[in-house]
Amino acid sequence: MKYYELDKEEQQMLEDIEKGEFVSVKNLAKVKKELIAAAKNTSNKTRNVNLRIPERDLQKLKAKAAREGIPYQTLASSILHRYTNE
Q1: Between residues 24 and 54, which one has the greater pLDDT?
Q2: Could you give the C-alpha distances from 14 to 28, 35, 62, in angstroms and in order?
Q3: Taking residues 3-29, what's their average pLDDT?
Q4: Distance CA 78, CA 85 (A)
Q5: In this model, does residue 44 exceed pLDDT 80?
Q6: Would residue 1 count as lying in a domain?
Q7: In 3D, which of 64, 85, 84, 83 has the Cα closest to residue 75?
Q8: Residue 55's domain spans which residues?
Q9: Is the pLDDT of residue 6 over 90?
Q10: Is residue 76 part of a domain?
């Protein structure tokens, strides 16, 4: 089983779910279909990028990704995504 650390917002959401504080939206099937389409459109817009980084940084990135149980490319993409959306 993989272990994931939750941030404060994710932890609060988990607690709210366990308390039964979330309720389903009206027209769940329609909303779900729209969200799936949006996710597919978003995920299709990826591009490959080649980066030159020091070997030591790459090894640290791979080690951190291994501890979190995710591929290192996913971790690198996540870091870039968070940084660009601040």
Answers
A1: 54
A2: 20, 21, 28
A3: 86
A4: 11
A5: no
A6: no
A7: 64
A8: 51-86
A9: no
A10: yes
What string of DSSP letters covers the chain? Answer: -------HHHHHHHHHHHHT---PPTTHHHHHHHHHHHHHHHHT----------HHHHHHHHHHHHHHTS-HHHHHHHHHHHHHT-
pLDDT attached to residue 40: 80
**Cβ distance 11 to 17 under 8 Å?**
no
In this structure, how many other beta carbons lie within 10 angstroms of the beta carbon of residue 48?
4
Residues 34 and 63 in one domain: no
Same domain, 82 and 65: yes
Whether residue 65 contacts residue 75, with contact meaning beta carbons closer than 8 Å, is answered with yes
Structural tokens at position 74: 């996913």
Average the pLDDT over 16-35 and give the result.
87
**How far apart, in whole angstroms, are the C-alpha atoms of residue 81 and residue 33?**
25
Task: Identify whether residues 65 and 85 lie together within a single domain.
Answer: yes
